[in-house]
Amino acid sequence: MCRVPSIGVITHAAVVPHPPLLVPELVPGMVDATAAVRTACVAAARRLAEVAGHWLAIGADACPGRMRPPARGTFAGYGVDVPVTLSRSAPAELTDLPLPALVAAWLRERAGAESVEVELLAVNAGAAGDADRDRLVDRLAAVDGATDPVGLLVLGDGANRHGPRAPGGEDDRAPGFDRAVGAALGTADTAALLALDPELAAELGAGGRVPWQVLAALAAPGRWRARLLYSAAPFGVGYHVAVWERR
After folding, report:
1. Distance from the CA of 114 to the CA of which of 69, 72, 76, 87 falls in 20 to 30 A?
2. The domain spanning residue 124 has which CATH number?
3. What is the model's pLDDT at position 126?
4. How many distinct structural domains can be found in the chain?
């Protein structure tokens, strides 16, 4: 179970998925089909930028690590050279940014935020990954009392096993899992997020479990107002978009 600290500087959070299909240039034949999730993600990011120009992004990836601004990356590995930056001023040379960091940078640009720092934890790494999650939560809790607002951008996909054409193959448990995740994100139910089963999440290919639990651990001490902007699995993968605001 994830430890629950107290934190005061983060008062707003945006929860988004991070598929390449959010970037229109990468899906020229599916721009309309992907518009709903894209619009929701940009709306959540813009809401975050209204209250905080500097963001901390939390995600999970096979290549964990910390990416600090300034840095420049590209979606070229996903078919089209779409450059993005972690801050408004970035170096000319490219950095090999993982997908969640690329999407965080892309959303920063769409929303007009000043900068985003990205923390990526290991995706579905079992007990070792959860220990890293707890250490990150403890470190973030240490900023309690800071005065500058920081927006929390939480990047994570749901189960990738919705339907027979899903990337991970069909699993009848996927719809129930993502219904529960969507309900928890839409009501700021931190207890439900903290209770997500790591083994089930791994079996369903839900890489968002750890980032969602970081959000829940940081938010648990307070009272939050949540709004679910999108929750569906249009391409066999669960995508959830929500905004949280401390009351």
Report:
1. 76
2. 3.40.830.10
3. 80
4. 1
